[in-house]
Design goal:
Helix 1 crosses helix 17, helix 10 packs parallel to helix 11 and helix 13 packs across helix 16. This protein is globular. The strands form two sheets. Strands 3-2-1-4-5-6-7 form a seven-stranded parallel sheet, sandwiched between helices. With about 375 residues, the protein is an alpha/beta fold.
Length: about 375
């Protein structure tokens, strides 16, 4: 069987394609050459920190990482896809037995006489209740897919409200040989908390973390909070204002978006990683941090996580400001940090290891292709 993986939201399909090829499956990846920088394989593989992911030029970053020949570049003429661009994309997908579509390619490719599955990595949160033409096409694409591959447990509440033929849960891939605990030289005074999540308050709950951190410092603890300087302009500025209001400017260190090699270094510099406090499930931040044996504080909803994984990840589960503060205080215990780190790495190896996840995809492909 020959599998074509189309588009590459958050580099999920890149990691899947790599793992499939390591498992002996003929799999190609088609990416949008004009996509957001974090959706390009270079962001996962190359140390290109300091570049703005919103204005990355693929030819420029290809100096840092050369794509393998099984990655195909779809190069629309503009950010707004034209009919000719769609025709070009259709032509690129002709040779495959099965397509695995990462949004928004499902909008364009759902009308082919070819079997396809949808790789759902959180895009359903954006379109499921809107009535524009693109949103209606997205829902239609999900309903026509042979299977919708779910990766976010919280999104099941949305999937139940649209039509689909079949669904299955397959976790994100984390390359546990790359994401691993590594000694990092640091000169930090006190604990280091890392929050690499984008600033979107109603989705991530950044304000809860900052408020809890202000209380933590107010109690006399020594700590530094590392926060990535990206997100919506409004909410990023609101986060900065809250930091000033709580008088913890000297305890907060902002950093520009970093590619994954740089982020691995930051995971290993930190004593604990803080993800999101709203959604109820994780993307890649939490399992990457756990793979580096770092304790994670975040909100995980119990029911869907148990259903998807058979257990809830060994994080400090926190949703409110006071719960986050309690987690910070608990993490002053070095033995607890070490214990959670060890448990987290074992959990990621069990659920997110490339070899394990690739087998789940191969089984699905065989079922779909008969």
């Amino acid at each position: 069987m020959k599998i074509g993986l189309v588009m590459n939201t958050a580099n999920n399909q890149w990691l899947i394609a790599k793992s499939l090829r390591q498992a002996g499956v003929e799999a190609d990846l088609i990416i949008n050459a004009k996509d957001f920088g974090m959706a390009l394989p270079h962001w996962e593989e190359a140390d290109i920190s300091g570049l703005d992911p919103y204005v990355i030029d693929i030819e420029e970053i290809s100096k840092y990482y050369a794509l393998p020949n099984w990655v195909k570049l779809w190069n629309p003429k503009d950010l707004h896809v034209s009919p000719q661009d769609v025709v070009d994309l259709l032509y690129m997908t002709k040779e495959y037995d099965l397509l695995q579509l990462s949004p928004p390619s499902v909008i364009y490719l759902q009308f082919m006489r070819k079997k396809f599955i949808v790789h759902e990595a959180g895009w359903i949160r954006k379109f499921s209740f809107l009535d524009g033409a693109a949103e209606k096409l997205a829902r239609r694409g999900y309903s026509k897919a042979e299977c919708v591959v779910m990766t976010n447990p919280d999104c099941y509440n949305l999937l139940r409200k649209i039509s689909y033929r079949k669904e299955t849960f397959i976790p994100f891939i984390v390359e546990t040989e790359r994401y691993r605990p590594t000694p990092v030289e640091r000169q930090d005074d006190g604990l280091v908390f890392l929050h690499p999540t984008r600033h979107v308050w109603d989705v991530k709950g950044n304000q809860k973390l900052i408020s809890a951190f202000g209380k933590f410092i107010g109690r006399g603890y020594k700590a530094k909070l590392l926060m990535m300087d990206w997100g919506t302009l409004e909410d990023t500025e609101k986060s900065r204002s809250l930091v000033r209001e709580l008088q913890v400017v000297g305890n907060v260190e902002w950093f520009m978006p970093v590619s994954k090699p740089g982020l691995i270094n930051l995971y290993n510099r930190s004593d604990a990683v803080f993800d999101q406090f709203v959604l109820g499930s994780y993307g890649t931040t939490a399992p990457e941090a756990m793979a580096c044996a770092r304790p994670v504080v975040m909100y995980l909803e119990q029911h869907w996580n148990n259903k998807c994984y058979g257990e809830v990840a060994p994080v400090l589960n926190a949703r409110t400001v006071d719960e986050i503060l309690d987690a910070m205080v608990a993490l002053t215990d070095a033995s607890l940090r070490r214990k959670l780190g060890e448990k987290g790495r074992r959990y990621v190896i069990a659920h997110h290891n490339p070899e394990i996840v690739a087998k789940q995809y191969v089984q699905l492909y065989r079922e779909v292709l008969g």
